[in-house]
Amino acid sequence: MNKFCCDCGTLLDVQEHQNYCFACNKGFKKLNSQQKVVQEKVYVHQTAAEFLHQEARPLIDEECPKCGHGRAYYTTQQMRSADEGQTVFFECVKCGYKYKTNT
Question: Was 8 annotated as part of a binding site?
Fold first, then answer.
């Protein structure tokens, strides 16, 4: 018999080693041989820094002026008037050095 998560509806893989829904992290426990499922919420605590390092940030081939590494994360912002170019902010993948350039 298939079991589904009560929170998100994901099909649960009810095995010995798994005790939570992979999609929403809601925990469950098997009560007996019929594999009845009891729901409980599992909370994962992260710091803001951990979260920021997990999110997908755009990468570009850009040489770091500090360490010479060839890849950097980047963001752009319009810092000056609309008829001028944008400012590109870089962060080196290897050493974390931050620098900018006006385009």
Answer: yes
Q: How many domains would you assign to the chain?
A: 2
- Rounded to whole angstroms, the maximal C-alpha distance in the chain is 70
**Which positions ≥6 away from 74 have C-beta within 8 Å?**
57, 58, 59, 60, 62, 88, 89, 90, 91
The C-alpha atoms of residue 74 and residue 91 are separated, in whole angstroms, by 6
**Tokens read off for 53:** 């390092």
Instruction: Give the pLDDT of the chain (103 residues) as one tens digit per residue.
Output: 457 777 777 776 666 566 667 667 677 655 455 555 556 666 677 677 666 666 678 899 999 999 999 999 999 998 888 888 899 999 999 999 999 998 8
Q: Is 92 annotated as a binding residue?
A: yes
Residue 6 in marked binding region = no
**Same domain (yes/no): 36, 66:** no
Query: What's this model's pTM, rounded to 2 decimal places?
Result: 0.47
